[in-house]
Amino acid sequence: MDDRNDKSPHILNTSATLLGLCFIVLTSLKLNNQSEVTLIDELTAIAIIMFMASSFLSFLSMRSNRIPSARFEKFADFIFLTGLFFLFLTTIFILFNVID
User: Fold this and answer.
1) Dist CA 60 CA 70 (whole Å)
2) Is residue 4 helix, strand or coil?
3) Residue 28 structural domain
4) For 73, which of 3, 17, 50, 61 could close a Cys bridge (C-beta 3.0–4.6 Å)?
5) pLDDT tens digits for 60-95?
6) Does the residue 1 lie in any domain?
7) Angle between helical axes of 8-31 and 40-63 (0-180°, round to 10)
8) pLDDT digits over 6-42, tens only?
9) Residue 2 is assigned to a structural domain of this protein
10) How many CB atoms lie within 10 A of CB 64?
11) What span, in angstroms and rounded, lies between the C-alpha atoms of 4 and 34?
């Protein structure tokens, strides 16, 4: 049984959703003129890049029938987790800005 593409559809779906969430955060920061005084927009931009790369790699993994597809899936998984970490940092900074 070939289960190397089990995670790719889930990674693609979740990455795309979190990518949209990051764009909403970045847009709201720009509209409230808070992007110049915080690190939140930089962290959100990094998360956007990570989720976009993860989406791209998971798509390639689903489309490929060869051995590199497992490698694409591993990279997509790692990059997705990195994007989650940056989204976590963004959340922490937003929380501290709301508290202040």
Assistant:
1) 10
2) coil
3) 8-99
4) 61
5) 888 877 777 888 888 999 999 999 999 999 999 888
6) no
7) 150
8) 778 888 899 999 999 999 988 888 888 776 667 888 9
9) no
10) 17
11) 43
